[in-house]
Amino acid sequence: MQLEQEAAIKMFSLLEFRTLVRLPDYVKDMQAIAHDYFLIGLDLETDEEYAGME
Fold first, then answer.
1. Which residues constitute the domain of residue 39?
2. Mean pLDDT throughout 1-25?
3. Nearest CA-CA partner of 13 in 37, 50, 41, 33
């Protein structure tokens, strides 16, 4: 499962997401295996051309 997490984190980082919070061993799956919890975010910017539109 760790490999899947690493692949997902890499994919989101390529999309310019960044890790805001990482809580190690915070959640457990159906087999009671602990996994890290990641809170990720993306900075959104409004194009100046559309900033004044309603």
1. 2-50
2. 89
3. 41
